[in-house]
Amino acid sequence: MGEMNTREIDIRAMALAARSAGRALALSTTAARNAALQGIAERLANVGPELWEANQADVAYATEAGIAPALLDRTTLNVKRLQGMVDGCRDVAALPDPLGEVFEGHTLANGMVLAKKRVPLGLLATLFESRPNVTIDIGALAIKSGNGVIMRGGKESLQTNIVLVGIVQEALAAAGLPADAVQLVTSTDRALVPQLLAMDDLIDLVIPRGGPGLQGLVKQLARMPVAYGGIGVCHLFVDASADLDRSIPLINNAKTQAPSVCNALDTVLVHRSVAGDLIPALVTDLTSAGVKMYLDEASMATLDAISIADAGDLLASATAEHYGVEFLSLQLSVKVVSTLDEAIAHIQRHGTNHSDGILTDSVASAERFLNEIDSAATYVNCSTRFTDGGVFGLGAEVAISTQRMHARGPMGLRELTTYKWIVRGDYHIRP
Which domain holds residue 36? Predict the structure, then answer.
């Protein structure tokens, strides 16, 4: 892996350049920013071997370094993922431009006219692990929303990210926009992170996308506002009234469709009255898909000896450590509960306010769940896998925020803006 050392990177100079370029971006036309996004999409669609060679080098490095399988999967680029990046850029380009929107206007009794005008947040800093598509998602959303951005990805995807950011900067320049608006920290030296997190005079928002270690570091060191996202301990509760035949494929989708991502299912809670019918069928379905299941005592009691033998090593008794854990792999915990109250209490205790849902045909149970579970995405009869900026119609996302702030769930264009008051008068003087 080629690396630059700390002396070769002036992180403050990068921030100054990105902030200045971001101001120019904020004043640019919608057409120019959309042209840059279409240029990124076109370059990605016709990318040469340099991107694939860079990604192969990253995957080889990550494999040799022994990184977790979930991160290795996220690092690996393929044709489908590349096409998703292309489509994401085009989707963002097609979205309405949030900048300049004037809203909540009113006139005071003295004739002064007040309104709010939507403007960019300013300069963003994003820290993330693996997933080269994140580089393009963040770059595209920053460009369309008029924000400058400094990105620092994981060392396991450095070579890929260098190529991708180069593509973004080429497209910006071709559209007549400042290439410095989107920048990548090309050093893997961790000493640069504290420097970055101390520059609250230049950086307006930090967005860490990664595991507890990364988020803990940012919580400890960041001097500017932070939008935390990415850690999802996701639950589905199968209520007494749920359609069990339709619940099984939904649970399978939530667990197996993309097990290494933050909105993949981690725990299934099952109402005691339907446990005997659901759990044996669920075990057969999921273990045949390679899912290792951790069952509490009541769940295990619903199985006969043949079912247990058929599941083999993919079935184990659950302990306390199997609840409240983000597996990021083909693993799932199951627990029997007696009431909706018990299910809600379990999610409130073990969840991360990311994506949680109920499977039910009871309107009353659904409404209680929606009212009492405070997850950023709270579902009735849906797979948790739908928590995604593209799926929600946002084009892409910079993160999935689990905080109680202006941005919750997938953060798209509008979540990367703030507003300023516009006040028009006639030489008014306050009495």
Answer: 6-230+399-424
